[in-house]
Amino acid sequence: xxxxxxxxxxxxxxFIRCDFNVPKDEFGNxxxxxxxxxxxxxxxxxxxRGCKVVLASHFERPEPGKFTHxxxxxxxxxxxxxxxxxxxxxxxxxxxxxxxxxxxxxxLFDKMxxxxxxxxxxxxxxxxxxxxxxxxxxxxxxxxxxxxxDAFGACHRKHxxxxxxxxxxxxxxxxxxxxxxxxxxxxxxxxxxxxxxxVAIVGGSKVSGKLEALDQLLDKVDKIxxxxxxxxxxxxxxxxxxxxxxxxxxxxDEAQRVMDKARANGVKIYLPVDVVAAPEFSNNAPAxxxxxxxxxxxxxxxxxxxxxxxLFREVLNDAQTIIWNGPMGVYEMxxxxxxxxxxxxxxxxxxxxxxxxxGDTADVVARAGDIDEMTFVSTGGGASLKLLExxxxxxxxxLEA
Length: 401
Ligand code: AMP
Description:
By secondary structure, the protein is α/β, with parallel strands linked by helices. It has two domains: 4-182, Rossmann fold (3-Layer(aba) Sandwich), CATH 3.40.50.1260; 194-388, 3-Layer(aba) Sandwich (Rossmann fold), CATH 3.40.50.1260. The chain contains 13 helices and 15 strands. The strands form three sheets. Strands 3-4-2-1-5-6 form a six-stranded parallel beta sheet, with helices on both faces. β13 (321-325), α10 (338-349) and β14 form a beta-alpha-beta unit. The radius of gyration is 23 Å and the shape is elongated. The termini are close together. The model has no long low-confidence stretch (mean pLDDT 95). The site of adenosine monophosphate (AMP) has 16 residues, from β12.
């Protein structure tokens, strides 16, 4: 993949598609600015070469054409100012029009000098972003002689600033930023040449969302640990009663197929041997540790139990490469977070190369305080899952076209 280093960018205007879709708390404070910090190397590289840097990102899902502070990038602009610490100007289009290519944005762009930065408003304020509009993409392309994509987390989407815009650039004027190149190279290298034993930990709510990834992983890994809500479809297929636990009845055959394929490939599958069960989906519900075989009729398994975490620790002991996608339980509720937190500690303690993908899983690892212990935490959830499924991402294909 061609990267920013392959282009001649000195003194030019550079449009960088970033992923500044950061989490905020109920007061609107940015709680985790890793995505902003992760974009800094590319931005600084351009600034050091005297470029005019124009940054663009989406933020959640606003109604197009309607300004709301909640969806504005105003707070991101402030954080960026603190993190970048540039002497030059950091401009932000504060016209509050619920639009992206505004008169003010164009005026700001015209007065920019080398070393200045302009942050455009939330790309999704324009309906053309999600519809992959060529017209909107063309307007955006006027903000940069060079186009850089550094938004790994958005590359699985065919949106105007990711896909359509690349048509307005040539091989000499478009490339991946450092973050995008790092994420893609990391995943492809690990999947191609993992040091063994290679263990995948898969969790989260549903089998359906991860079926293709599971299928691909079965061709690559030595062991798979299955936790979270998705484990119950496998347990049910093995003949256990799972009560009211999350279950995808229509995927029972698929669960069997996955287990058969694992056996044929010599891949060992590990399922929870016990669970934290509760009669309802609530932090206030009474909870019990129960063997997976003994979930009462009206109860549900909301986390893996202590015997399962011990078992999974043993499984991880000799691992040399670990990929983790999906929490082991409903980690958002304290009562059901222990399984995920413990697995996070165990993964962090190994001497393996550890790759964490998926927004929820990254959140688990952050809450557990293990982020710095992991080899690599991907900034993109959906995109990293697509790579695990062995799929090409539309944003990356468009860059290479
Ligand atoms: P996913 O988006 O598929 O990775 O799923 C993440 C979600 O799965 C999180 O919000 C968890 O709360 C949820 N989850 C994990 N384990 C369970 C479980 N045993 N029952 C219900 N939801 C679960």
